[in-house]
Structures are given as structure tokens and as C-alpha cells.
TrEMBL record:
The gene is sucD. This is Succinate--CoA ligase [ADP-forming] subunit alpha. It catalyses: succinate + ATP + CoA = succinyl-CoA + ADP + phosphate; GTP + succinate + CoA = succinyl-CoA + GDP + phosphate. It comes from Flagellimonas lutaonensis. Substrate binds at residue 159. The keyword Transcription does not apply. Keywords: Ligase, Nucleotide-binding, Tricarboxylic acid cycle. Succinyl-CoA synthetase functions in the citric acid cycle (TCA), coupling the hydrolysis of succinyl-CoA to the synthesis of either ATP or GTP and thus represents the only step of substrate-level phosphorylation in the TCA. The alpha subunit of the enzyme binds the substrates coenzyme A and phosphate, while succinate binding and nucleotide specificity is provided by the beta subunit. GO terms for biological process: tricarboxylic acid cycle.
């Protein structure tokens, strides 16, 4: 079992014929992901990378049964692409685009609430279920199949954690890069909940960063859930100066509760195994699963 994407997912690429869409769609197809086509307005009826191109997402849903979309649309048009996908009936919308204006995301976030869909991102590396589907920009060779789920705000730390877990002789069920923007579709709590509820996932790695309340919300949910599945947690940004945006637009400390130290304290109090260095993630996962 997996969460969000698997070998049966029918994936389309929005922004299919652009340079980013082309490059990453090629990698996804090479990995074995079931890419059934793509969308570039004005280029419908053409073929690209051996797959059909559609003018709209609705056409892709009607003609090839698409149920997952990955978005490589430029920032100015990406929120519209998210809303179009939801409106067309796409169930999982994975948005890679970085730099979408916050006002646009507020509108898109509000709009898609009325649809039965899950948004991952924006500004995220995507989702991978090893050996089944890579819907994103992560290096597929790092990920091996297993029973550890990963939730991360950071793209590079997603790959780092996966690499360490694999080096310990373990593997990954699904890794979800939720993105580091102030407004994202799937929160840390929601992603953790999906993995805790997945029967094949026996341990979850939760990687957060300074700023916001997402990790605290996830930790409190975990404590209240009474789940016996262990979570290994790490918070990036311990040495960041207070009040400074660091890398991700969402990584800004607003008060005493969203520093790395405060988050780690809450996580420990909720029963999460917190490591102080990302270099310790793999070893800690092996230890708690022993």
C-alpha cells in the first residue's frame, strides 16, 4: 500500500512542453511512472515524449482518465493551473512551482476546498512511492522500497533522509515533500496522518523547519492519536537569526513558539524521537524500529 500515488495512478503534466516540464516528465517516464499525457494550452492534439498533449485538464481527464497532476507552470499562472486541475476532477495535485504570489495561493487554496482533492505544495519536490511512481523532481535512485514514510518541508532533506534510511538496510513506503511556502495544500499533520494510517508504514520521519505551527500541530495530533508507530523528527534552522526569512518563504520565526528549540521541545513532549542533526536520522530510525 502507498499514499497519494502508486503504479495505478494516471499522471498528467501541466506545463508539459516547457523546459522544466519536459525534463522532469522524461525522468518520471524513465523511472516507470505512469504518465498518460500532458497539458499545454494551444498545443492540444500534438504528441510530446510519446504522450498526447491536451489543451485543458478536463480533456485529459475525459480522454485518458487522468487522476493525478504535476504542475510545472510559471508562477504567474500556477494558481490558475491548480484551480483548473481541481475543477476537472483531478484527485491529487502536486505543485512544484516556486514563487507563486501569496495572494494567488490564498485564492486557489480557498477555491479547491469544495472539491474532493489533495493539493501537495507548492514549492515542493513532489511525492514518490519507490518502485511505483515518482511524481516530482527527486532523484529516484536514492529511494528504495520499504516501510518508512517521510514527510518533509525541505526537498534536499527529503533525499538525505531517504538515503540514510536506505543505507541502514531499510526502505521507504512513500515520501511526501510538502513544500516550504507560507500557504501549502497538505500540512505536516495531514501528511503524517496519512502515513500513520497506512498499514505498510511502520515508522515515520518528520522533517520540519523554523517558522509556523505545522510541526507542533502534527506532534499534538500524534500524541492524541495514541499511535504506537514511532516518529523520528528533525527541525532545520536552529542557528537562524530570529525574524529572518531563511530559504523558504515559510521559514520565518514569528515568536518564541516557532523557533527550532521550541518545536523540538513540543515534539519530544508528544513522544517523537527528535534528532539534533540530520546526520542522525537513519541511525535513529533503525534504533526505534529494532
Amino acid at each position: 500500500m502507498s499514499v497519494l500515488v502508486n503504479k495505478d495512478s494516471k499522471i498528467i503534466v501541466q506545463g508539459f512542453t516547457g523546459s522544466e516540464g519536459t525534463f522532469h516528465a522524461e525522468q518520471m517516464i524513465e523511472y516507470g511512472t505512469n504518465v498518460v499525457g500532458g497539458v499545454t494550452p494551444g498545443k492540444g492534439g500534438q504528441e510530446h515524449l510519446g504522450k498526447p498533449v491536451f489543451n485543458t485538464v478536463a480533456e485529459a481527464v475525459a480522454e485518458v482518465g487522468a487522476d493525478v497532476s504535476i504542475i510545472f507552470v510559471p508562477p504567474a499562472f500556477a494558481a490558475d493551473a491548480i484551480m483548473e486541475a481541481a475543477n476537472a476532477g483531478i484527485k491529487v495535485i502536486i505543485t512544484i512551482t516556486e514563487g507563486i504570489p501569496v495572494a494567488d495561493m490564498v485564492k486557489a487554496y480557498d477555491y479547491i476546498k469544495k472539491f474532493d482533492c489533495v493539493l501537495v505544495g507548492p514549492n515542493c519536490p513532489g511525492v514518490i512511492t519507490p518502485g511505483e511512481a515518482k511524481v516530482g523532481i527527486m532523484p529516484g535512485f536514492v529511494f528504495k522500497k520499504g516501510n518508512v514514510g517521510i514527510v518533509s518541508k525541505s526537498g534536499t532533506l527529503t533525499y538525505e533522509a531517504a538515503d540514510q534510511v536506505v543505507r541502514q538496510g531499510l526502505g521507504i513506503t512513500t515520501a511526501i515533500g510538502i513544500g516550504g511556502d507560507p500557504i501549502i495544500g497538505t500540512t505536516t499533520k495531514q501528511a503524517v496522518e496519512m502515513l500513520i494510517n497506512d498499514p505498510e508504514t511502520e515508522c515515520v520521519v518528520m522533517i520540519g523547519e523554523i517558522g509556523g505551527q505545522l510541526e507542533a500541530d502534527a506532534a499534538n495530533w500524534y500524541k492524541e492519536s495514541g499511535s504506537k508507530k514511532p516518529i523520528v523528527g528533525f527541525i532545520a534552522g536552529e542557528t537562524a537569526p530570529a525574524g529572518r526569512t531563511m530559504g523558504h518563504a515559510g521559514a520565518i520565526v514569528g515568536g518564541s513558539d516557532d523557533t527550532a528549540q521550541a518545536k523540538k521541545k513540543i515534539m519530544r513532549e508528544c513522544g517523537i524521537h527528535v534528532v539534533d542533526s540530520p546526520a542522525d536520522i537513519g541511525r535513529k530510525v533503525k534504533e526505534v524500529m529494532a
